[in-house]
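Input record, target 12 of the design panel.
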């Protein structure tokens, strides 16, 4: 097979990604922030882009990040990947200019020449090799290791050719290489002290890490030595502003340029403003209520089923989210390959819920703790759930945690019940299923339910190996129905991503994953 130069060719690579194009090309998202060519020409070079955010990052090492807000600071800004997804989640060349598949388990990449890391190290095959060897080394302790468990060996063929040898065929390899977890790290930084990458990232991207004042702000600066098209903006400041109204006010007055954490209650205000613009696009993520299935009383499936029957999901979409987003039927968005409309959540049925609780031995009720992050909508959802579960004799204590503490709590199983969300980073069902439900992913890798079902594991493993997309879809439908039968979680909402910008900003966009893409942004 000839090398791919960012264009679709016949063969196995096409088969691996055609479905991503199909499921994502119907996006209803628009980009009201994109200026005309005339406007862009009039835009001044330089300036500081201030991004107001609710919470600080937890860490900045892509091999240890487990949340989108942290990844958002560095993804395709400080760090780059071999391939990068476009707006339709189709893989395009980035640090790799070409690739081919020699057979089902051998992938070969040609690297871009003349690229340097921000500490002066060269991008070459050894750099790529060392990046993934560090990720795959059990001693590293990366929560992302299992996402790349199919990689058996990385070979540096010459300075600019690298091969990935897989243990088994893995259909969505390119999509995972294009995610934040696939970021290529500086070999010099790895050799000197890799632990520093959590606080001081070093990549090949258009922005260089400058500083981090914990709880206040992270600053990036334009990379003057960047190999590609240099950004228009000189500096990006990710400023921590916990109060929703304050973030919006900062954008309205121009004190901040963008906030990509927009409360649904502020939409009317934004749309009526003369200085703000609203960006809306359907995403790949799903929000849910999760059970820690290892802790009493949720080690009893009947209790989980009872809670599932007692939550009226439609009222949450309408009352909490003001109909932003849509009702989910599973942990997979309809824009992700492997989605099935045949997966049916538990219907709202208070009598059935009471019956199941009685059968489980909890006729006299329960006392539970529901954990949520400090996002306004999540808190409101928790209060609605608290009210609904009173109807079946379940008393819920709502525990609101700062984002970092919330991530720590669900990663370490310090909860009974939690409100969570999973942002698919690839457009492929494997990213949902393996990370959320496979027993190897329990804990920080994504399986915060601590779910362990050998049959589910087997189906998930079969789906990631299967090259026939129709068979893959069938396997995902079967495993999602099993997870619903086991009542591991309650699907609530498919995300609609929102951002608000001051009208002085043009040419940014939100990816379907909800990454803020600012490399072409301009300040007028």
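The sequence produced for target 12 reads:
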């Amino acid at each position: 097979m000839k090398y791919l130069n960012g264009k679709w060719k016949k063969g196995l690579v096409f088969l691996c990604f055609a479905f991503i194009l199909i499921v994502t090309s119907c996006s209803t998202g628009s980009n009201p922030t994109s200026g005309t060519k005339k406007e862009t020409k009039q835009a001044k070079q330089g300036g500081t882009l201030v991004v107001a955010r609710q919470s600080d990052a937890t860490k900045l090492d892509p091999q240890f990040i487990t949340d989108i807000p942290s990844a958002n600071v560095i993804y395709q800004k400080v760090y780059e990947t071999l391939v990068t997804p476009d707006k339709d989640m189709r893989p395009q060349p980035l640090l790799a200019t070409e690739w081919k598949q020699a057979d089902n388990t051998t992938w070969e990449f040609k690297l871009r020449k003349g690229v340097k890391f921000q500490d002066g190290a060269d991008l070459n095959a050894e750099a790529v090799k060392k990046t993934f060897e560090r990720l795959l080394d059990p001693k590293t302790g990366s929560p992302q290791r299992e996402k790349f468990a199919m990689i058996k060996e990385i070979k540096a063929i010459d300075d600019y050719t690298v091969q990935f040898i897989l243990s088994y065929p893995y259909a969505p390899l390119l999509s995972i290489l294009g995610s934040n977890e696939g970021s290529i790290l500086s070999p010099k930084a790895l050799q000197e002290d890799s632990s520093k990458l959590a606080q001081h990232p070093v990549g090949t991207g258009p922005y260089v890490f400058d500083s981090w004042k914990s709880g206040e702000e992270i600053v990036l600066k334009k990379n003057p030595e960047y190999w590609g098209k240099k950004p228009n903006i000189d500096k990006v400041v990710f400023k921590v502003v916990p109060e929703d109204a304050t973030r919006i006010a900062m954008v309205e007055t121009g004190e901040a340029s963008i906030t990509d954490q927009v409360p649904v209650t502020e939409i009317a205000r934004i749309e009526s403003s003369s200085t703000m613009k609203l960006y809306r696009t359907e995403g790949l993520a799903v929000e849910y209520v999760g059970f820690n299935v290892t802790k009493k009383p949720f080690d009893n499936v009947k209790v989980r089923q009872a809670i599932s029957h007692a939550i009226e999901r439609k009222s949450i979409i309408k009352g909490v989210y003001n109909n932003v987003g849509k009702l989910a039927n599973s942990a997979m968005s309809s824009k992700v390959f492997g989605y099935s409309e045949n997966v049916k959540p538990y219907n709202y049925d208070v009598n059935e819920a009471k019956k199941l609780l009685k059968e489980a031995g909890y006729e006299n009720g329960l006392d539970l703790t529901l954990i949520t992050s400090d996002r306004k909508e999540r808190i409101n959802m928790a209060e609605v759930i608290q009210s609904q579960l009173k109807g079946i004799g379940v008393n819920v204590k709502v525990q609101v945690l700062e984002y970092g503490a919330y991530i720590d709590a669900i990663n370490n199983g310090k909860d009974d019940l939690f409100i969570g969300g999973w942002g698919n980073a690839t457009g492929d069902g494997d990213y949902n299923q393996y990370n959320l439900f496979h027993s190897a992913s329990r804990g920080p890798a994504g399986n915060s339910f601590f779910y362990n079902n050998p049959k589910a594991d087997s189906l998930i493993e079969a789906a990631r190996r299967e090259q026939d997309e129709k068979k893959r879809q069938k396997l995902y439908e079967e495993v999602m129905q099993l997870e619903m039968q086991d009542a591991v979680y309650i699907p609530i909402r498919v995300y609609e991503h929102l951002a608000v910008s001051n009208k002085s900003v043009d040419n940014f966009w939100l990816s379907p994953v909800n990454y803020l893409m600012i490399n072409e942004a301009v300040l007028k």
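The first strand starts at residue 48 and ends at 53.
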